[in-house]
Amino acid sequence: MDFSFSEDQRAIGEMADGLFRDNCSDEQMRDYDLAAKPFMDDVWQTCIETGLHALAIPEQFGGSGLGMTELFCVLEAQGASLAQVPVWEHQLAAYCLAEFAGDAHTALLEQAASGESMLAVALNALNSSQGIELSLDGLSLQGQLGAVPYAAQAQCLLVLAKSKTGPCLVLLDPQAQGVRLLEGVANNGVAVADVHCDKVKVSAADVLPVAATEWLEQRAIAALASLQLGVSVEQIKRTAEYLKEREQFGRAIGTFQAVQMTMADCHIATEALRSTLYQLLYRLDAGLPSPSEAFATQYLSCEAAYLVGHKTQHVHGGIGVDLTYPIHRFLYWSRHLSMVLGSSSGSIERLGNWLANNNKLGWKYDLEENQITG
Fold first, then answer.
1. How far apart are CA 195 and CA 180, in angstroms?
2. What does the alpha-carbon distance between residue 171 and residue 189 come to, in Å, rounded to a whole number?
3. Chain centroid offset of residue 275 CA
4. Among 233, 264, 239, 255, which Cα is nearest to 316's?
5. Cα–Cα distance for residue pair 254/243, rounded to 1 Å
6. Is the Cβ–Cβ distance between 176 and 131 less than 8 Å?
């Protein structure tokens, strides 16, 4: 069996890697920090020009109609460069709308595919200790959402609200009457805003079926884990280069056994994440059920974020806390992605609960289900 990427997928990854590295060097990232912009609008425009912003949007609305694996190739490159652009938020919001309410939002999806409109998504409440604080009563939204990425910059938000039938996704105009935004900045530098809704009216077409929530969450986990893999791999790569140059007691510290074992732990963590993530991507693109794979990927992504982030920071010593040195940005990103995913303990608990209530896990049952439905 050949598990390698196709030629087209490799080309997409190489194009994305070149685009982000050309625009996100350490010097450019320092300039971006000083400029205090909400996101890299020039890089986002380049993504639009190259079509990287619409890979997962269906062709009927003007996108490329590709899958999660192709999106992974872009997100891994984005994570390695720490590019502040809403690649996955924009595409998965549009992809979800197209899947569950495309006929009602054709114009918006075409604008998203062309880059005329930016979309964002807010799933933080699924992993929040406060739970979902936004309620849908009939066709009225009441409550709040915390730290929604790009809420003040996007033209439309796909937000999570609790309803009588369960958690559901609702399309929200952040400029609608009754919406108030409190803007801020996340710890990795991305623009966020608390979204407060006071009797905000939405249409029936703006409310997606309950099934859309699980559909989007599994793909959001894959997207966030793809970013984390890119962040962690680049973090290890940069640390290895530093360990070859930094000397102590007359020799490079990379030759010390304790340091080598520390870096080996980091490598194992990223490869464990990679193998689980690849399986999740395959199942999502193949249309197979993926709840356990999503929870396992969520857990391993949080584990890699913590382990790689802190161990690579530790072996850098004092220079690791120097804000003029770039390694701290990778730790900030790892912490942010882990927080959005909901922590290791929360994700392993969800996986355990799923396993306790499901005794059919594995390829055998996939084949049986396909035979029955076929």
1. 6
2. 25
3. 17
4. 239
5. 5
6. no
DSSP letter for each residue of 169-227: EEEE-TTSTTEEEEEEE-TTS-EEEEEEEEEEE--GGGBPPTHHHHHHHHHHHHHHHHH
Cα separation values, 32 from 20, 47, 62, Å: 14, 17, 31
Domains and CATH numbers, the chain: 7-114 (1.10.540.10), 119-206 (2.40.110.10), 211-373 (1.20.140.10)
Residue carrying the six token digits 């990927």: 297
Distance, CA of 348 to CA of 298 (rounded, Å): 8
Query: Strand, coil or helix: what is 256?
Result: coil
Size of the chain in residues: 374
Give the separation between CA 19 and CA 24, rounded to whole angstroms.
9
CB 85 within 8 A of CB 54: no
Look-up of token digits 């899947």: 99
Best CA proximity match to 231, nearest among 188, 295, 286: 188
Q: What is d(CA 138, CA 202) in angstroms, rounded to the nearest whole number? A: 9
> What is the pLDDT tens value at each position of the chain, 374 positions in all?
567 899 999 999 999 999 999 999 999 999 998 888 999 999 999 999 999 999 999 999 999 999 999 999 999 999 999 999 999 999 999 999 999 998 999 999 999 999 999 999 998 878 777 889 999 999 999 999 999 999 999 999 999 999 999 899 999 999 999 999 999 999 888 999 999 999 999 999 999 999 999 999 999 999 999 999 999 999 999 999 998 887 778 888 777 888 899 999 999 999 999 999 999 999 999 999 999 999 999 999 999 999 999 999 989 887 777 778 889 999 999 999 999 998 888 889 989 999 999 877 766 666 665 554 44
